[in-house]
Amino acid sequence: MHKAIGSKKDFGNLNEDELLAEYNSCVGDIINHEMVKKMDSCVQHCNTSRLQHSINVSYYSFWVCYRMGWDYRSAARAGLLHDLFFYDWRIKKGLRTNHASWHPRVALDNASKITELNKVERDAIRRHMWPCTLIPPRYIESYVVTLVDKVCAVCEVAERKYKGFRVRKVAVS
Predict the structure, then answer these.
(1) In CATH, what number does 14-161 get?
(2) Which residues have CB under 8 Å from 109's CB, separation 6+?
(3) How far is residue 38's CA from residue 84's CA, in Å, rounded to a whole number?
(4) Residue 166 predicted with pLDDT over 50
(5) Can you tell me the distance from the alpha carbon of 57 to that of 17, in angstroms, rounded to the nearest whole number?
(6) Distance CA 136, CA 129 (A)
(7) Nearest to 33 by CA among 112, 151, 136
(8) For residue 74, which phi and psi values (nearest 5 degrees)?
(9) β-strand 43-45 against 48-49: which pairing, if any?
(10) In angstroms, how far apart are the furthest CA atoms of the chain?
(11) Of 125, 79, 148, 133, residue with least CA distance to 101
């Protein structure tokens, strides 16, 4: 299993960590699905695969909702499935509309094919591009997935951009 970027949690030892075991109980049935694993071959942000990005969004959405006492299971599952599409969004090929409004529909359709989704999961997947899209999310967990998605995207781009960046020490007289 991949590791959430920035996390010190070892996703390889799920049974040794209570929080990771709970996370795995939320997404374990879908994380190894063939369609989900296929996202590892798609680039999302710089050097981050779409699967890695989705795991980042899933884990941190789970973590926030778990800490706040909200529906962390739905947040984790929606975070993992929110970008379940397989076209290259950088190439403009006759999309009916822009990528920000189109891919949540495709992801929701694909996610519905591999698992049953509850109303929170459906809303979080469908509305995760707000405010780029007009209709805001309905549930607090959907807002968490939306916000975490944006933060993860920025961190993934920044990680690539500033990898190897070093702060020079300047002597002050």
Answers:
(1) 1.10.3210.10
(2) none
(3) 9
(4) no
(5) 19
(6) 9
(7) 112
(8) -65, -40
(9) antiparallel
(10) 65
(11) 133
Q: H/E element holding 49?
A: strand 48-49
Q: In the chain, where are the structural domains located?
A: 14-161
pLDDT over 80 at 23, yes or no:
yes
pLDDT for the residue 168: 43
Nearest to 134, CA basis, from 97, 93, 108: 97
First to last CA, the chain: 50
Q: What is residue 74's predicted lDDT score, i.e. its pLDDT?
A: 97
Are the C-beta atoms of residues 70 and 139 closer than 8 Å to each other? no
**In whole numbers, what is the pLDDT of the chain averaged over residues?**
78
Over the stretch 70-125, which tens digit does the pLDDT of each residue have? Answer: 999 999 999 999 888 766 655 665 555 565 566 788 888 889 999 999 999 999 99
Residue 169 confidence (pLDDT) above 50:
no
Q: Is residue 93 within 8 Å of residue 63, measured between CB atoms?
A: no
Distances (CA, A) of 49 to 42, 45, 61, 86, 87: 6, 7, 18, 12, 13
Q: Which residues contact 7 (CB under 8 A, 6 or more apart)?
A: 59
So what's the pLDDT on residue 49?
74
Distance CA 145, CA 63 (A): 11
Burial class (CB in 10 A: 0-12, 13-18, 19+), 127: buried
